[in-house]
Structures are given as structure tokens and as C-alpha cells.
Write a structure and sequence with these properties.
The complex is a heterodimer of chains A (158) and B (199). Chain A is mainly alpha-helical and 158 residues long. In chain A, 72% of the residues lie in helices and 0% in strands. The chains are: A mainly alpha (158), B alpha/beta (199).
Chain lengths: 158, 199
């Protein structure tokens, strides 16, 4: 039974689903930020965690890190490294969000479209990030790829 | 069933190093790409705030002309359209209303203080263009805490909102929208208005 569970967890289809889900969400959330770095920088400044001089730098670079990570996860290019970046980003988002909530800040989370239809930061969004963070562990443990040349090189178990 | 090979003791170490090196390559490569795109973009985001004492920015870098005229649609072409300076973007009354309803933006009233006292958008903060330096210290905390700023003046050909927006952009604030149609069309369209001592 335990072996069966491990077999399902380590099955390439499970890995593919995890990569598609996390990569797809990263791509979806990164695109508006890439197109509107000023809006994203403004949202970052709302968290009041970074020095003002670093806010614009974060606004310019972070969306691209999300975008490239998302794209790599979807196609399965260096999946473990991409999953590691995704895990660090998700952990950082959760820490920043939790600090903001504990300080009583009512701010836009900066997760989705910049102005219209954005989500107010709440514990539910941190829970979503936690679920995604757990899914990145699957990719780290059982990397898989849609690219035929990379399939054979991926180990079958950690 | 494929026989499992026992890897050398340091192979796990080298695997981890390869994964970390790959992650660093993604971060550095993506950051460099972002900086390069920002550098080449007409909507370039200044990486360091301009000193407050700096000169007003040229309006030539605005992405395109936007009408400030006469209560019509902000997308309508006007012969004397004033292009918005860099860092400012036009927002229609409909978009401003959506931001108001979702409480995503702080509204800044750039009209003279007596007009603000008479009627204003509920929750708006007074930051008159003609007394910016007097009012800014009181408004600074709210401005810093808000993800977006929507600035307005009377409407028509008023430019107070643009002057206030330029000053805020020079101070390093981002996400600045100008409600180009102004307060008067906002009020006549039946949107929320506070009068007198109402909050």
C-alpha cells in the first residue's frame, strides 16, 4: 500500500500535473506584472518590507523570474531548479503576506491583474501558496519533463 | 525491474549543487532580462527615485496623447490634447469607479481646499496643487499605504491633477492614475459624492 502511494506520487503523470499547475499559475500571474512593472512595484511597496530604493528593482526583476520559472516548469526544463526557485518565491510571498496581515495591513495581494479584479491579501491566499509550495516538493523529489531528451536523465526516485 | 545502483556518497551533494546552480542561473538570467527589457521599454520604470528638488519631467516620453478635454470619453481625440507626463496614466470614470468600489485606490483631490470642503469623492484626501507642500506631510502616510493613486481636479481643461501627479512621481511614488474627466463629470454621472462635513 505504501509502495503504491509512492508509485502514484512518483509517477511522471503526477509530476507533469504538478508542473503544469504551478507553472501555469506562475505564467498567468507573471504576465500582467511583466507588462505593468510600475503597478507591481506599487503593490510591493504596499507591503512596506523593502527599502524604497529596492522596490523598483523588485518590480522590474521579480515578474521575469516568475515568468521564466513558470515557462521552465511547464516545458520541464531543469525541473528541479525551477521547482526550487518556485518554492523560494512561494515561501517569500507567504512570509511577506503573513507579516503584512499580522501588522494589520489591508492591501492588494499583487497576485493577479494589477488594478481591476485584484485580490485583497488574506489568509486564504497564503493557504493557496502553501498548497503550491507542497506541490513543488513533488517536483523536487521526482522531476519529470515533457522534453523527450530529458526524460531518461530524470531519476526514478529521490 | 531495473537494478538500483548505489551512488557514490558525494553524488547527492553534487546533485544538490547542480540544482542550486540551475536555480541561481534562472534568477540571474531572468533578472538580467527584466532589467534589459525595462531599459529598452518606453514605459521604463526608474530604478531610483528622482530627487524631490528635480525638474519637472518632459512630457515627450508619454506613451501617447490622451485627451484632457471637455467631459467626453478619455479616448476621444481632441485637437489640443495634452500628453500626460511620464509616470502618469489616464483612467476613465468607469475604471475609477471600479477601483473605488473595490477600495484598491486612494483618491487624491487636487482642487483648491475650499472646493474639496464643499464636495469630493468619499474618502478622498485633499492635496491641492496650489498648496502641495503644506498638505503633503499629512497625506504621506495614506499615500504610501495605498497600492494605487487616482488624482482628480474639476475636469475640463484643469491641470491641477497632473501637477500633483508629477510631484508624486518625482518623489518616487508609482501607480499614479489621473482621472482625466475630473470631478464634475464624476458627480453628474451619479457617482458617490460627499458634501460639507460628511466623511
Amino acid at each position: 500500500m505504501r509502495n503504491r502511494g509512492a508509485a502514484i506520487l512518483g509517477h511522471p503523470a503526477t509530476g507533469g500535473l504538478c508542473r503544469l499547475l504551478i507553472g501555469g499559475i506562475f505564467l498567468y500571474t507573471a504576465l500582467p506584472k511583466v507588462l505593468r512593472p510600475d503597478d507591481f512595484a506599487r503593490l510591493v511597496s504596499g507591503y512596506r518590507l523593502l527599502y524604497p530604493d529596492l522596490v523598483a528593482l523588485a518590480g522590474v526583476t521579480m515578474p521575469w523570474i516568475e515568468l521564466i520559472t513558470g515557462a521552465f516548469l511547464v516545458i520541464g526544463l531543469i525541473p528541479r531548479s525551477s521547482a526550487l526557485v518556485a518554492a523560494v518565491l512561494l515561501a517569500a510571498f507567504m512570509a511577506a503576506g503573513a507579516l503584512a496581515l499580522l501588522r494589520g495591513l489591508h492591501i492588494s495581494c499583487g497576485c493577479f491583474f494589477p488594478l481591476m479584479g485584484d485580490h485583497t491579501l488574506g489568509w486564504d491566499l497564503l493557504l493557496r501558496d502553501a498548497v503550491l509550495l507542497i506541490l513543488t516538493l513533488q517536483i523536487l523529489a521526482w522531476p519529470s519533463s515533457f522534453l523527450p531528451c530529458l526524460r531518461k536523465s530524470a531519476p526514478s526516485s529521490p | 525491474m531495473r537494478p538500483r545502483h548505489h551512488a557514490p556518497a558525494n553524488s547527492g551533494h553534487s546533485d544538490a549543487l547542480v540544482v542550486i546552480a540551475g536555480a541561481l542561473a534562472i534568477v540571474i538570467g531572468a533578472s538580467a532580462l527584466g532589467l534589459a527589457v525595462n531599459h529598452l521599454s518606453p514605459r521604463r520604470l526608474p530604478l531610483f527615485p528622482v530627487p524631490a528638488a528635480g525638474q519637472a519631467r518632459s512630457s515627450a516620453a508619454a506613451p501617447g496623447p490622451r485627451s484632457l478635454g471637455g467631459g467626453g470619453s478619455p479616448t476621444a481625440a481632441a485637437p489640443a490634447a495634452i500628453p500626460l507626463p511620464k509616470g502618469l496614466e489616464a483612467i476613465s470614470i468607469g475604471e475609477a469607479r471600479a477601483a473605488y468600489d473595490k477600495q484598491l485606490a486612494l483618491f487624491l483631490d487636487a482642487r483648491p481646499a475650499d472646493q474639496y470642503a464643499e464636495a469630493r469623492i468619499p474618502g478622498a484626501v485633499s492635496l491641492p496643487a496650489d498648496a502641495f507642500d503644506d498638505h503633503f506631510p499629512d497625506a504621506a502616510d495614506k499615500i504610501e499605504a495605498s497600492p494605487f493613486l487616482v488624482i482628480y481636479c474639476e475636469g475640463g481643461d484643469c491641470s491641477d491633477a497632473i501637477h500633483v501627479g508629477e510631484r508624486l512621481f518625482e518623489y518616487g511614488f508609482l501607480g499614479i492614475r489621473i482621472m482625466v474627466d475630473g470631478f464634475d463629470p464624476w458627480a453628474t454621472a451619479g457617482n458617490p459624492v460627499s458634501k460639507g462635513s460628511q466623511p
